Structures are given as C-alpha cells and as structure tokens.
Amino acid sequence: MDWDRIRIFLAVARSGQILGAARQLKLNHATVGRQLTALETELDARLVERQTHGCTLTPAGEVLLKAAERVESELLQAGTLLSGASEALTGAVRVGAPDGLGNYFLSRALGALAAQHPGLTIQLVPLPRTFSLTRREADIVITLDRPKQGRLIVKKLTDYTLSVYAAKSYLVRAGRILRPEDLAGHLFITHVEDFVYSRALDYAAELGRLMSRHYECGSVVAQMEAVRAGHGIGILHDYAAGQFPELKRVLPQTRFTRTYWLMSHPDTHHTRRVAEVYDFVSKSVAAAKASFVIS
C-alpha cells in the first residue's frame, strides 16, 4: 500500500471531511477524493461513507484506521530515534488551549520558545473549544477537565482563579459595589451559553441571576475587552486581568477556582519537539504560579 494514500485516509478519518483533510494536508480536495478512491480500489473495500455533511468510517475503515495508527506511531518513534543525535529542534508542534490561557499567557511564552529555535514551528490554537489528540487536532492539549478515559499522558498544569472585575472608569460612573446585592441593575458581561464546551465554565450562573442585563460574548478576549472598555462587570481570569491596571477587582470575597490539565498522546509525546514544548509549557506555568492563583 502507498503510504501517501494511507496518510490521506488518516486525515479524512480524523477530520470527518474530505475538504477538512485537504486543508490539513494542503492538497486539492479533488486530489484527496481521488486518492481515497484509489486506496479503496486497491483494497477492494469501501473505507468511508461519503455524505453531504461529511464522511463516516465503514467497518473496513475502522480496521484500517487502527492498523494505520499503529504504523504511524512506529514511524514517529523511529523518526525520534534517528533525529535524536541532532541538537537542533525542528518540525511543527500544534498546541490547543483555552482562549484565556492561550491569549493571555501562552502567546508570549511560546513565542519566546519559537524565537529560540528557528527550525521549530509552534502552532498555538487558542480557541474556546476542546481538541482531540486522537484525531491529531493538536500534539499538545490543555483542557479544563481531566479526561476519565483514553490512552493519554496527563498531568495537572495548575489551578487558577477568576474574580469579578470592572473598569475603574465604570466604577467612577456607577458607584461602589460592596455586596452581591449591589450588582442589581448592572450589565453582566459573560459567555454565550450555547458555546460553553466544559461544565468547568459554569461559574457565571450565580452572578447572572443577580444581574438581569447581559452582554454575552463568545470568547474570553471579547469579555475582557468589553470590561476594559467600561461597559459593565465580568468574571475574568485573575492572571489575565492583572495585566491591565485599568481593571479593579470588586467583591473580593467572590472567587472561583478551576484547573488546567496538560495532555499529549503517547504516540507523539516522546518525539523530541513535542516533549520539549510540553516540558516548556509545564515549566513556564510553574514559574508564574503566583499569578494564576490569588487569595
């Protein structure tokens, strides 16, 4: 079997789309479709059911997927051994992270690592969503929930706290807020419930009941900018809000604690570039631990 065709099949299986696989592989979608058909012809078996909304694996496709992933794992490990003697850190590593951590911490930290290694391409994907290591959506994933199952390498990255904030300019206009009851009538800048991807993000419900006026944003960055602009009150990550002197913590007795988990897949974890980035993220967060949890 042609490994290039197997590689294309893997991309289709993981993305669930021919078009998505084409984007990932930087190929024309028609080429991906032809190569997939050629592989099915070679094996005399239908591997995927092609539908308007995407592709699903057939039983034969499931069998091939498991075999192909075993081969891929062996090739990755062989590549690590063969390149182990080289001091240069090369290749691409994709890091999927919650948008708060990605935008307000990892963007600078990983930027410094990328600057040190000209041959290393770090792809930071800071989005309000989850990432699948099994489908190779990322090499390293930071999540809010510890996985309960799956063949993954997992470690606790850090606890972090969130508090209630408003811009100093807003408080000058609106007056002091001393008790939760004082929140009534204020605009609550919060998340969009439909976009919540983890129950760890449920900290807004209690305050939301105290403020009937809501401005809902789909990302942490949008919430931060709206609070900084003086439009209302929001629950923000302390490590992020601490970077902006125009923000003031209100209701200091109200605090929420959550946890970040650092994960990688055993098939790729021991490749030098993934291991180095994984270790760098862990050490960078540990060095800044005081900013992640406030009392």
Biggest beta sheet summary: 8 strands, mixed
The assigned structural class equals alpha/beta
Strand coverage percent = 25-35%
Terminal CA distance reads: 59 Å
Outline: elongated
Q: Got a strand count?
A: 10
Enumerate the spans where pLDDT stays under 50 for 5 or more consecutive residues.
none
Radius of gyration: 23 Å
Give the helix level as a range of percent.
40-55%
How many helices? The count is 12
List SSEs in N-to-C order: HHHEEHEHEEEHEHEHEHEHHH
Describe the structure.
The chain is α/β, with parallel strands linked by helices and 295 residues long. The protein contains 12 helices and 10 strands. The chain has helices spanning 3-15, 18-25, 29-43, 59-83, 99-116, 168-174, 205-210, 220-228, 238-241, 266-269, 272-287, 289-292, and strands at 48-51, 54-57, 91-97, 120-126, 140-143, 153-167, 187-191, 213-217, 233-237, 247-264. The strands form 2 sheets. The chain has an 8-stranded mixed β-sheet, with helices on both faces. A two-stranded antiparallel sheet has the order 1-2. Helix 7 links the parallel strand 7 (187-191) and strand 8 (213-217). The longest helix has 25 residues, at 59-83. The mean pLDDT is 90.
